[in-house]
């Protein structure tokens, strides 16, 4: 089952096309993890997170400003290259301007039959954010109902909530196994599991995680007990070549805080009579993206908790080049982790990663951590 996550990661488009053929259902591409997938699942739509391919490309230059982050340009390139031509719909929940530009350009040049912009509030700490989002979810639900031609009932919403909650709990349990001094899985395997969770049918993915937990991970010994324990945090990161390189230098990545990792599945919807209110509360209260983490800095405490509970020796802070939200977040994160004795290494990611250069820096960081351990 563990290998299945890698297979799903690599065959995302084939999977979605087969799913469509098999079920006759609609597929919704989405940017940003603030999109309320519960409502899409309630309508029997398959949500598919749009991610890049980490290959050099020359198609976005006329459409998106060159100083926008490489991640949003890589995402748009996938659309311009026709790799997501099977999408029936495409949506975004407001997060940052960069990814919104990718959405806007995609909508203009390759509009699928349904597109939606969800005004997810930025000031999530305002008392008005929950009622505001609840009302936006109501409007969104109505638009989806019109699109699929079917009413979404409370029972449908309950099903959507249950599917998402079960998936989130399974992923939390999977990440918990990595608290062990001898993690039964590598960071690369965890990245395949966490990323593929964002486009595979939720019930199927949850069943695979549960099977891995019950059968493969119990007593699994990969000899990771003597590796240096690291966490990754920062901008979006599904760069498997980068993670592979970091772990190849003698470390194991045991946890993360970024939007293709734990931030996607961290907290649950707490069921209540008003289903949309319950969903709104979940998205307002989830671990925040730096675009929404103000005026209070809640992310600092959350990241410290991850570092301590997963017992990391150091943290690699990655920033997608030109990612303003994380650029603002990073100095405080470095200071905050430093205060609890977790040294950090800062690296700036582009569409492709200069693996050789980064390897030297990662090796030096690991050497420094080993020296700290000695004295
Ligand atoms: S938050 Fe950063 S990495 Fe994510 S889309 Fe925005 S600019 Fe890019």
UniProtKB/TrEMBL annotation:
The keyword Cell membrane does not apply. It comes from the Bacteria. It holds the Pfam family HGD-D. Keywords: Iron, Iron-sulfur, Metal-binding. One of its GO terms (molecular function) is iron-sulfur cluster binding. Belongs to the FldB/FldC dehydratase alpha/beta subunit family. This is R-phenyllactate dehydratase small subunit. It comes from Desulfoferula mesophila. The lineage of its organism: Bacteria, Pseudomonadati, Thermodesulfobacteriota, Desulfarculia, Desulfarculales.
